[in-house]
Amino acid sequence: MWKKQQLQLPPQTKTALQNVQKGITSPFSLSVQGTKLGVHNWTHGIREDSGRYLSPENAVKVIQAKFTDYSDPHRPKGEVQCVAIMITAAKIADFITALENAAVLLPYPEFKQALDYAKSQQTLSDSKMVKMPTIGNPSFLPSADITPQSARTLQAVMRNANATASKSLDPMAMLAELKAKKAEREQKNQEKTTALLNASVEAYCYTKKAHLEQIALEINQHIPNASNIFTALLVFIGEDLTNLKEMMR
């Protein structure tokens, strides 16, 4: 049965990350072994008659078909754990917001790809609303830098080489630069860790332990509202998906 749940880092994971921020390290594994399937509005071959829309029901139908695709040599056999996470919305702005949060917690390519395409579609829709002035003929633009990109790249390489050569005479300056870069990396890691600790997203979740045939028969029960036309669905299959299940509240 599908349930609307809040996704966050598990308490044990949060504690481990907070300890790392304090300089306390301990053996802790976040690994999850298994396979996954992903589908969203812009997945190749997924297109409804009404356009580039994907309802929760039709997203699940795609997964059901894969669960019973016996020609797939990588199809899991026997009893497995299944965890499905669905981001869905009726409006593209809400869909983008949810995907941005989901991509922090679950930075899988499928969610990132859906987010990129959704943003592009929103930008395209907005641009269609802007009436452009009619231009009879192309006109000259004010004088500007029209250096080819290849030349720009070479210039950047030469600038970096010259900068490195001039700094090589001053070992103290090089040491200071290395320290600054290290501090910058540590700051970025700190920001990523803080974002993870605070990340939260509402999603529809489904969990089941059974054979894929049985899951295929039940996964379409209590599906989210069909009025949601934007959907991104990730389905995980494995023997032990505890780390994923513990994210659900």
Question: Could you give a short description of this structure?
Answer:
This protein is α+β, with helices and mostly antiparallel strands. The chain has helices at about 10-20, 55-65, 90-105, 110-130, 150-165, 170-200, 210-220, 240-245, and strands at about 5, 35-40, 80-90, 200-210, 230-240. The chain has a five-stranded antiparallel β-sheet, with helices on both faces.
Number of domains: 1
The level of helicity is 40-55%
Radius of gyration (CA) equals: 24 Å
Q: Largest sheet, described in full?
A: 5 strands, antiparallel
Unreliable stretches (pLDDT < 50, length at least 5) are 132-137
String of helices and strands: EHEHEHHHHEHEH
* Spatial sequence of strands, sheet with the most strands: 1-4-3-5-2
List keywords for this structure.
16% strand, 249 residues, globular
What does this entry look like structurally?
With 249 residues, the protein is α+β, with helices and mostly antiparallel strands. It has one domain. It has eight helices and five strands; from the N terminus they run βαβαβααααβαβα. The protein has a five-stranded antiparallel sheet with strand order 1-4-3-5-2, sandwiched between helices. Helix 2 (56-67) runs antiparallel to helix 7. The longest helix has 28 residues, at 171-198. Residues 132-137 have low confidence and may be disordered.
